[in-house]
Structure formats: structure tokens, C-alpha cells
């Protein structure tokens, strides 16, 4: 499958590209290699990766626990200390093997250790392949607030090996699917049409769909690497989705949501806002709502959940001058950024979501 050239790094596809990785490591004469994994990818993915890795450099494995709760500055401190104790220097390469938590935190650790060392992403979840590992966003959560601390800094390469997807449970695959659906809704109506009825999707050719999703994200990011304009389109569904995800993460009475589950709910609600603001037709809105609910089901909100979620919206990174900014659909396949919605309309979107 054809390489996608991103801003300053290639996105490589397939088993044969491990040869490209080995050549790159040899050419750049790294002093040593560190591999960051979590408890799941250490068990399920690391051996496959090491079977393709050909190097005479010293290799050290750093393992953290799996899960969003590990994506914090304390975990970064632990990793920085390990790198220091084991002799990492400016010519060290960090290879991140895992889902979005690993690529986010690994990229942040590498970007800040000794003012920056090289890193490579090997995403092993669908969400990381089509979203988290692409575009150079790296960072950690601040308490329950998603991705509040971070940098934009690109890896030396991203290697997509879809064999790792066989290690994922169904709910993790579905979580990644949410971002693929988003890419169609904001950029490519034909791509959305391929997914809106999953019974018609040819999963035998799923690699092609993954490639297209990455190409869409890369095309948007390449126009606006630092998110001053069109890159904000990628936040469709995330203004409300991140607030929902954060609320469920901090509330001990709630079951934590996967990222894609929260974003799917956010996309339905922000599609409702798009419709109410005259940007999206009623027919298109109900098609989106029906399709996403058929895949992701419904998150169970209580009436007393709504205000705490609304309170979290003020922390969204797109906000300017204290005003909540949305990326809304301007018809299927198009987007309008920097859109405002008042609390009454946002509340109605939650009510409509439950109906």
C-alpha cells in the first residue's frame, strides 16, 4: 500500500516496511533504542515487533500500565527517570508501540527529554492508526481534562501494521471506527456513505479504508499543522465528546467510556446543533443519528449529569475569549469552524440524543 507523506515524516504500510525501519535506524547511528509499551502491548504485540527488528544497538523496554488513567505527568516523570537511569542521551531513539495513550505520552516524553529526542510510532489499535499517531499531537491529561498538556512535534515515521488489530477486543475496534466515520462526515461524503451501513462494509478490504482515513487526516493536518484554522475541523464531535469522556472518567459512579464511544455521542449532538443552526438538513441529521446509534448504542445520561458536563466545556482547547467554539457540519462532507452555540441549544442536543 502506498506510503503517505506527511509533514516531515512518512506513514508506512505493511510488513515489508520493517525493512525501511531497520535501514532508518542503521543510517541514523542511534546510540541506543528504548521501546515504550503498556502491559497489553508488551504481552500481545512486542514479540511480533522484535521479530522484525534487526539492529545491534542496545534495546531497553519500558512498560507502563494500560489505560487512560496512566496518561498523566506522573507517568512521564517515571519514564524520564528510567531513560536517565538507563543512559538515554540526545542520540537515543524512542519507539512507541501501542494505542493512543502510548503514542500520545511517548511522543510527549520524547519531545521534552533533553529538549527532544527522535521517536517513531507503531500504533497497534485502530484509533491510534487512524488518529492518535498521525499529525504530531503529543501530550497528557490534566486530572480528568483531556490532552491539556502537550506539544505538536512529529515522529520520524509511523509504521502501520494492521496485523496488530487482531489483538483488539471488539469494543476497541469500534472505538477506532468512530474517528473513521468522523473523517467521512467532515471531509468525504462518499467515504461516509461506505460506512453508514456496516452490514455493507467489505471488511476484507479494511486496510484500504484505514489508508483512506489516514490520508484524509493527513490532508487536513498538512494544510494547518498548528491548528490555527482548518485543522480544527478534526475536532468535530470532540467538544461535547471530550467533556462527556472527562466526566465519566472522573465520576466513580460511572463506567469509563472509550474515546470513540464518547466521540460518537458528541458527533450526534453536534450534528443536531448543525441542523438547528441551518447548516445540515433534517434528513442528513437523522441519517447520522441513526447510523451512529446503530453502531455505538446510547450512553445513559441522568438529568443531574448534564450540568457537570456543561461545566467541563469551558476547558475545551478550541475556546477563545471564554466562548465555546464548535466545528460543525456544513452538510455531509463539509465543515464550518469557530461556530458558537448557546447553553440552551447545547442542552437541547443532549435531550434529543436520548430520544
UniProtKB/TrEMBL annotation:
Q: What is this protein called?
A: 3-dehydroquinate synthase
Identify the species of origin. Answer: Flavobacterium cheonhonense
Cofactor names from the entry are:
Co(2+); NAD(+)
Would I find Cell membrane among this entry's keywords? no
Q: What does the UniProt function comment say about this protein?
A: Catalyzes the conversion of 3-deoxy-D-arabino-heptulosonate 7-phosphate (DAHP) to dehydroquinate (DHQ).
> What keywords is this UniProt entry annotated with?
Cobalt, Lyase, Metal-binding, NAD, Nucleotide-binding, Zinc
- NCBIfam families under this entry? aroB
Entry-linked Gene3D superfamilies:
3.40.50.1970, Dehydroquinate synthase-like - alpha domain
Any idea where the 3-dehydroquinate synthase C-terminal domain is? Answer: 176-319
The 3-dehydroquinate synthase N-terminal domain covers 62-174
Q: Enumerate the Pfam families for this protein.
A: DHQ_synthase, DHQS_C
**Signal peptide location in the record?**
none
**Recorded E.C. number(s)?**
4.2.3.4
